[in-house]
Amino acid sequence: MMNRPNESVPAVFLDRDGTLMREVNYCAHPRQVEIFQDVPEALQKLKQAGYKLIVISNQAGIGRGYFSEAQYRLVEAEVERAVRPATLDGVYFCPDHPERATARRKPGIGMILEAQRDHRIDLARSFLIGDKAIDIDCGRNAGVRTILVKTGYGAQELQAAPDWIAEDFAEAAEIILKQTQLEPDGTA
Ligand SMILES: [Mg+2]
User: Fold this and answer.
1) Where along the chain do its domains lie?
2) Looking at CB atoms within 10 Å, which of 83, 90, 109, 147 has the fewest?
3) What are the angstrom distances between the C-alpha of 168 and each of 73, 133, 148, 159?
4) What's the CA-to-centroid distance between 76 and ligand 1, angstroms?
5) What pLDDT is recorded for position 158?
């Protein structure tokens, strides 16, 4: 990995629920956070390959009034704790109710553009991993390569058209690492 100070860097955009952790239908409490077993190690490998790790998560439970932003923040802190030793570079969430959605809510690309600005991300060298068609649509709308995982809702999301399909997060990470080796300069 040879990212010079002024150069943009690639990222892996990460859906949270059903992708990094078990889908529990509106996770409202840190106790409900169950990170999939191989996720910390897979995140660490992606990081070592030069990728920024950026969570982008629709949290309509806030907009629907199921839980508060303060409760969401407690869950977010638990996720960050539970993926260690990997360190997330950014966590973006969208509280919008689906019927009053802004461009931040996936499949809108608002969160990706915010992260791109905050972290100097090169979207053309980036990837998105998610378990829903709206994740895949978001990635495609932003011009990043997409991987659908079959965990969470992934096995039912037959209308999704990802670049790759993986059994789980660890396999998705391996796909990215393999692609990284095929990049022109051999680095992320
Ligand atoms: Mg999900």
Assistant:
1) 13-182
2) 90
3) 26, 16, 9, 18
4) 14
5) 87
Residue 185 confidence (pLDDT) above 80: no
- Measured in Å, residue 130 CA sits from the centre of ligand 1 at 6
- Which contacts (CB < 8 Å, 24+ apart) does range 5-8 have? 7/120, 8/120, 8/121, 8/122
Sign for the CA dihedral angle at 160, 164, 167, 168 comes to: negative
Residues within 5 A (CB) of ion ligand 1: 15, 17-18, 131, 152
* Angle (nearest 5°) at CA 2 between 113 and 147: 45
The DSSP output letter for 150 is S
- pLDDT surpasses 60 at 1: no
Catalytic residues: 15, 17
Q: Do 108 and 141 meet the contact criterion of CB atoms below 8 Å apart?
A: yes
Q: How confident is the model at residue 182 (pLDDT cuts 50, 70, 90)?
A: confident
The answer to pTM > 0.85 is yes
Q: Which pLDDT band, with edges at 50, 70 and 90, does 68 fall under?
A: very high
C-alpha 111 to ligand 1 mean position (Å)? 15
> What's the rounded mean pLDDT across residues 12-39?
97
- CATH hierarchy code of domain 13-182: 3.40.50.1000
Between the CA of 43 and the centroid of ligand 1 the distance, in Å, is 17
- Calculate the dihedral angle through the C-alpha atoms of 164, 27, 66, 131, rounding to the nearest 10 degrees: 10
